[in-house]
C-alpha cells in the first residue's frame, strides 16, 4: 500500500493501471477509520483490481468551525488499518492541494438537499459534492463506495453522478453497528463512557419503532420515536423524519411509498449523531 499526497502523483500511479484495464474502486473518507469504513474498503477490494481510499477532512462541508476543529485526525493509525484491509493507495492530500483557491462551484439538488441535514447544516452538501466531485475527477474510479448511515449524502451523491454526469457506479453499503446497536461513526470516539451508554437509546428507539409501526399509523410511530428520545437522559433530538427513500420527502402514511426510511439526528452532549432505519424496503 502506498501513501500519496499530491494529485499529480496519484494520477501518475493510476494512469498505467487504467491503461492495463484495471478497475479502480474509490472509498472517500475523512479518516478516523472504524469498522464501518473497513466494510466499505473490504468490499471495494473484493470488487476492484485497485482501491484508492481518500483520507481528507474536507473543510468545505463543515458549517460549524468548532466541529471541524474537533474532528479526529488519525492518519498513521488509518494507514495501518488500510494496509490490513488491502487498500492499494491512501490519498491524503493537504487542504491547499485540494483547494488551491476557494471552490466556488455550487451544487444544488432540490428537494433532496433542502430537507433534514440540508436544512440543519446549510452548505454541508454543497461541500460534500465539491470534494466528492473533485475525487471523482482526480481518481476516475470505476466504482465508489458510500455508507448508508449517511443516507441523505448517498442519495445526493447518486443524484450528482446522474446529473453531472459521471461515468461510474455508486455502491451503497449497509450501516455497520456495534454489537449493542449503536451505528458506527468517527464521532463516537468523542463520547464519554456515560454518553456512550446514553447514545444507545437512539438505535434502540429506531429498532423498537419498526415493530411499533406495524400496529400504528405513521404519525404515531414518528411520535413514538420522538418521545423515546425526549425521555432519554442526555439526548436532545434535532429531527426525526420518516421519508420516501428515493425523494427524501416526508411521507404521511405507510401506503404512500414502497420505500420508507426514518432518519434521525440527535445531540448527545455536543456530539451530533445520525442514524436511520428502513421501515419499507425496495429489495
Ligand atoms: O461521509 C464522509 O465521510 C464524507 O462526507 C465524505 C464522503 C468522505 C466527503 O468528505
Overall description:
It is a single chain. The protein has 283 residues and is of the alpha/beta class. The protein contains ten helices and nine strands. It has helices spanning 7-19, 35-47, 65-70, 75-85, 95-98, 117-120, 124-139, 151-163, 193-215, 218-231, and strands at 2-4, 24-29, 50-55, 89-91, 143-147, 169-173, 235-244, 260-268, 271-280. The chain has a six-stranded parallel beta sheet with strand order 1-4-3-2-5-6, sandwiched between helices. Strands 7-8-9 form a three-stranded antiparallel beta sheet, covered by helices on one side. Strand 5, helix 8 and strand 6 (169-173) form a beta-alpha-beta unit. Helix 7 packs across helix 8 and helix 9 (193-215) packs antiparallel against helix 10. It is globular. The chain starts with a strand and ends with a strand. The site of pantoate has 10 residues, from strand 2 and helix 7.
Any chance you could write out the topology, listing elements then pairs?
Elements lengths: L1 E3 L2 H13 L4 E6 L5 H13 L2 E6 L9 H6 L4 H11 L3 E3 L3 H4 L18 H4 L3 H16 L3 E5 L3 H13 L5 E5 L19 H23 L2 H14 L3 E10 L15 E9 L2 E10 L3
Parallel strand pairs: 1-4, 2-3, 2-5, 3-4, 5-6
Antiparallel strand pairs: 7-8, 8-9
The structure holds pantoate (PAF).
Quaternary structure annotation: single chain
Poorly predicted residue ranges: none
Shape: globular
What ligand species are in this complex?
pantoate
Q: What's the arrangement of strands in the largest beta sheet?
A: 1-4-3-2-5-6
- The whole-angstrom Rg is 19 Å
Helix content: 40-55%
Helix and strand pattern? EHEHEHHEHHHEHEHHEEE
- How large is the share of residues in beta strands? 15-25%
Q: Which structural class best describes the helix and strand composition?
A: alpha/beta
The tally of beta strands, per DSSP, is: 9
| Gap between N and C termini | 36 Å
